[in-house]
Amino acid sequence: MSDRIVASYLIETCYPLEQAAAAMAGEQSSGTFRTMPGETPELMARYGARVDAIEPLGEVEQPSLPYARGPKQGGSPRPQQARVTISWSFENTGASLATLWSTTLGNLFELHHFSGLKLLSLQLPDAFAAAYPGPQFAVEGTRQVTGVHGRPLVGTIIKPSVGLTPDATAELVDRMVGAGLDFIKDDELMGDPPHSPFAERFEKVMTVIDRHADRTGRKAMYAANISGDLDAMRRQLDMMERRGGTCAMLVLNSVGLSGVIEIRKHSRVVLHGHRAGWGVYDRSPILGMSYLAYQKFWRLAGVDHLHVNGLQNKFCEPDESVLASARECLTPMFAEKPCTVMPVFSSAQSAVQAGDTFRQLGSDDLIFCAGGGIIGHPDGAEAGVRSIHEAFDAARQGIPAEVYAEDHPALKAALASFG
Amino acid sequence: MSDRIVASYLIETCYPLEQAAAAMAGEQSSGTFRTMPGETPELMARYGARVDAIEPLGEVEQPSLPYARGPKQGGSPRPQQARVTISWSFENTGASLATLWSTTLGNLFELHHFSGLKLLSLQLPDAFAAAYPGPQFAVEGTRQVTGVHGRPLVGTIIKPSVGLTPDATAELVDRMVGAGLDFIKDDELMGDPPHSPFAERFEKVMTVIDRHADRTGRKAMYAANISGDLDAMRRQLDMMERRGGTCAMLVLNSVGLSGVIEIRKHSRVVLHGHRAGWGVYDRSPILGMSYLAYQKFWRLAGVDHLHVNGLQNKFCEPDESVLASARECLTPMFAEKPCTVMPVFSSAQSAVQAGDTFRQLGSDDLIFCAGGGIIGHPDGAEAGVRSIHEAFDAARQGIPAEVYAEDHPALKAALASFG
């Protein structure tokens, strides 16, 4: 592993590519367009960002984003796209995720040279692994806490997202855990509102979960959404520990990096990372940051689960992007400290997508969340859960779902209903 | 002020506009495409997001973003744009900025209905003002701490951003404060790296600042970048208080909401909000969030200064956008709690833009940062600072800069050199 921070970007510019890449490197190390006193050749050699590679990708018809400007002379009339790799000395940032964020993202998106700029990938020196804790539970810890081995965890999201009282929420959880689910989570819209105060909701849900655990010997995991101000989050974590809760959900983009890092320090429960707002970063192919870069910040910060959308989802993301994200969650970040996390599939999922999810990911280290695909099963929620297990069983045994469905009626009904 | 949260969006869709707006409201309140058990008409009436207005803006040639899908039937072959206003009961979120973030941004960007979606504006019920502290110092406090009244604060950013030792940084600060500056800040790339440890840099810079304060009776404000993990930020704040520091800089997008809120609770110094990474939100006209919405989160969280770019900047932002941002910083958020903050102008600024900045903003409650425009002044840094003051003086007196420059040689040289 290099001792440099290495980032690659997709860019679009009317500047000659070398000049555009040099502007990126300049802005993100010396920080101005004009040579400043003190900006000696020695300083630039040691601390200047370095352009390691430029791979031209061809011209486009017109600028993807407005307001970019070309050079006064020597520019191209039509923008060119390219993949540019830039690296920095670790001395520039130290092992700080906040400074890494400013360095690899920062002002780059606003430079007038670019009608498009997106961070595609990020490689970090081992010093980051030494400085940050990474996941406390990760895949194995999640399996131990839930008692689920050798198969994916199957879960659901409490819906309607808002409006249920704590009692109504507990009733719904009763029904869903009763149907055999391993995992239940709050919607990201449900925090600590007047109509469902966190403490009351949490207590009532845990009472239900404990009752089922007494019966089954396995305790369903409840990812309760603590995302909020730090005092409240710490109080809620304490409550969880006292009450035997096993998982806290964090909306990464609203809590933010330093908040997530702080919670990881205080937490003795699994941290479920939700990416609500993620579309801001990745919805445009030519602006923002890819999930391959994004998830590295949060894995180092210490979450155990990360959302990756689902195959054939209700959103815009193509399946290959979902799979690339999920595979990356299970790919070690550092040799000594893999920081692998459990990918969470959700969004219009049912038994229909389960087999492909397993086959394409090549692993059952995942959480598979379905809502309508469980509660909307024609034979009820229990059959809905069973249909998903059966779809994974079929895939694991290499049997097509339709064949396996012949003597598995829950799966058969699910394929007919949701296929 | 309504007791509802009101947000307006620019959308682009091939769905009939009513259907598209309903999908937004549904996703951000009930949260699924399918009616769920428990989603009663009573619950929906009370907690469902409400579409308050739809203003069609016409068709566009082709989708701005890929992967959107139209309805199976009844859709438009070409996408339409519209301005949509949606509101939520305060009961949905309670006074939580994190839940507000999930509610007004959240999954919206990923909905398959949209080939473009941007949050344009946000109105909040007074309960948010009651729950969050807002700025501790704001404009008046910044003036008291710096002793600068009746004119803008003039400042600079330490450059080169990376690579200077603490001694070299202090030398540069000596020169710049000696030249008459009110305000100095770290670059957002400079945190607590091995080559310039925060504690050593801060101590050396403060020694220089104190020496000048003894001479002039006014203490220049040093916005030292503490952005990082919370333990370190709290340690650095303590150091500041002990040592007589007056300002901490926070990179909002890397520290995040809960971190900034937490720091505001512990801080007794001015908080300088830097928006590095802002381009992710606003670089596209059809994706993300406008500054008019964005800055409300941070003002409530409690920063005292907010960056707004500068007129004729080196980046992509048009002047009207810069001015709208700056005006919004000075516009009260709530009748009882204005939360107004000082806008910070920077990026390729010099005496050339000062007059227009004052005239267009209609206020001198601002911080005006220049680098090359000061240090690159042909008669030296002191003349650079003087030229900016002279440009503001001229504007305040309603005299064209070129006329005023006739008997103000520093301004004259600046206009000739940077104009």
What distinguishing features does this structure have?
homodimer; 419 residues; alpha/beta; Alpha-Beta Plaits; TIM Barrel; 2 domains; 5-stranded mixed beta sheet; 19 helices; magnesium ion binding (chains A, B)
What's the helix count of chain A? Answer: 19
Give the fraction of residues assigned to helices of chain A.
40-55%
Mean pLDDT of chain A: 96
The proportion of strand residues of chain A reads 15-25%
Morphology of chain A: globular
Q: Whole-number radius of gyration of chain A?
A: 24 Å
- Compute the separation of the termini of chain A in Å: 45 Å
Q: Most extensive interface: pair and counts?
A: A-B, 101 and 102 residues
Q: What's the quaternary structure here? A: homodimer
- Number of separate strands of chain A: 13
Spans of chain A of 5+ residues with little confidence (pLDDT < 50)? Answer: none
Number of domains of chain A: 2
- Output the CATH homologous superfamily of the largest domain in chain A: Ribulose bisphosphate carboxylase, large subunit, C-terminal domain
What is the CATH topology descriptor of the largest domain in chain A? TIM Barrel
Class from helix and strand fractions of chain A: alpha/beta
Q: Sheet bearing the most strands of chain A, described?
A: 8 strands, parallel, barrel
| CATH class category name of the largest domain in chain A | Alpha Beta
For the largest sheet of chain A, list the strands in their spatial order.
5-6-7-8-9-11-12-13
